[in-house]
Specification:
Radius of gyration: 18 Å
Number of helices: 7
Number of domains: 1
Number of strands: 6
CATH class: Alpha Beta
Oligomer: single chain
Shape: globular
Distance between the termini: 55 Å
CATH superfamily: Glutaredoxin
Length: 160
């Protein structure tokens, strides 16, 4: 009976932990969902060997504030730039590597932001700490890019 109770507790804890993970889409499904919902897209471009990509997952994307904001404001896509398969973008069937190159990715991790219609907004190269990343995603979600400099946005928000 005691073993059964411990097993129940472990399964409950595991299901709660997994329920809080971000819901990443594959490229084609994510783009389709973003168009349908007219939501901005965040594409995490990574490779399997990239240490900083793993840190981005373990630290930045695991941050409770980052997760909550992303879930509310973005469709999330994971894209292995060295992955097999074909994605469809702008009516073309291309490899993830070609897509990443076309978007200007020259290192990993890279975070691409797009409008709901698939139009690129900007790219954030490299690893970003949660305390910085949260301001970047707010800046983009609030449509401030192109209207004011990021530094001015931070000043307005009282960020030092």
């Amino acid at each position: 009976m005691k073993k059964l109770f411990i097993m129940f507790l472990l399964l409950t804890y595991a299901s709660i932990s997994f329920a809080k993970d971000l819901q990443w889409k594959n490229f084609n499904d994510g783009i389709a969902e973003a168009k349908k919902l007219n939501k901005k897209v965040l594409i995490d471009v990574y490779t399997d060997w990239c240490t900083w990509c793993k840190k981005m997952d373990a630290v930045t994307y695991a941050d409770k504030n980052v997760k909550a904001y992303l879930e509310k404001n973005f469709v999330l896509i994971k894209l292995n730039a060295e992955g097999a398969g074909v994605i469809t973008y702008a009516g073309q069937k291309i490899s993830p590597a070609v897509f990443a190159q076309q978007m200007g990715v020259d290192g990993y991790p890279a975070t691409l932001f797009m409008k709901g219609n698939g139009e690129p907004i900007t790219i954030l190269p490299g690893y970003s700490e949660p305390k910085t990343f949260i301001h970047v995603i707010c800046y983009i979600a609030e449509n401030q890019i192109g209207k004011k400099k990021f530094e001015d946005y931070l000043i307005e928000k009282g960020v030092k």
